[in-house]
Every structure is written in C-alpha cells, then in structure tokens.
Amino acid sequence: MVKQYKNILVAVDGSEQSYDAVREAINISKRNKARLKILYVLNDKLANVPVHMDTITLYKSVQEHADFVVEQIHRRIDGKDHDFEIVRLTGTPKREIVNFSKENNIDLIIIGSTGLDAIDRFIVGSTTQYVISHAPCNVIVVK
C-alpha cells in the first residue's frame, strides 16, 4: 500500500544535499497534495564555541547565514507554484527536527544524507542518523 502524506517536513542547513532534499520534498508534496514545511535550525552550539570574535559579531554572522539559506530556498522554489512555509528555530538541529515533527503531526521528513555540521558528525553522530532513529514518522534521506 502506498501511503499518502499530508504534512511533509524538509530540514535544510545550506548544504547542497539539503537543497536537493528541498527539490525532492517539492515533488513529493505536489504528488500528495501535502503541506510542506521547510525547517532551518540555528545551531545554538555556536554560542559555546571558543572564538576570537565578540558575541554580537558571531550572532550576526550566524543570522546572515540563516538569511542566506532562506533566500536560497526562495530562489530555488520561486516559479514552481508551490505553497510552503519556512520555519526557523534555534537549538540542536537533530533534536529540533524530531521535536518539531512530533509537535506538528508531520508524517514524512526529508533530509540530506550529510550536512554542514562536520563537528557534530565527528563527535556525536550525524543529524541524519539521529533523525532516522528518533523520528515518529517515515524519513527519506536524499543523497
């Protein structure tokens, strides 16, 4: 039996894989006539990184990256005649993705196989692996 999805979530971080995941999410949401939510999580670990930069400059830089990613999403979706919502959260990306999916009745998560967070992959395992293991719904991993 083929499941019809109603609420689809795609997680983005600015990596090429996440933009590929957006394209896949658009196609799947159109086929299913589903609502599409695009989630960008501002990683709060950055506040604890020892850098030679004042907090305001660091925050501004992180915000600029978030704005850039959202702009890229709009550019890639523009003209595709598709209804979507971009949600921005702050926290640990893998946990925020899973929590958001539980709180918003998401029935499919689409995520890239790798992202920008090489430190996270090295230290505690990939965001993708965490989402696959903890999500309350199906997960499609885009390579």
TrEMBL record:
Subcellular location as annotated: Cytoplasm
Taxonomic superkingdom: Bacteria
Pfam families: Usp
A GO CC annotation given for this chain: cytoplasm
Primary localization class, coarse: cytoplasm
Domain UspA, residue spans: 5-143
Keywords for the protein's UniProt record, in alphabetical order: Cytoplasm
Keyword Cell membrane: no
Family: Belongs to the universal stress protein A family.
Protein name per the record: Universal stress protein
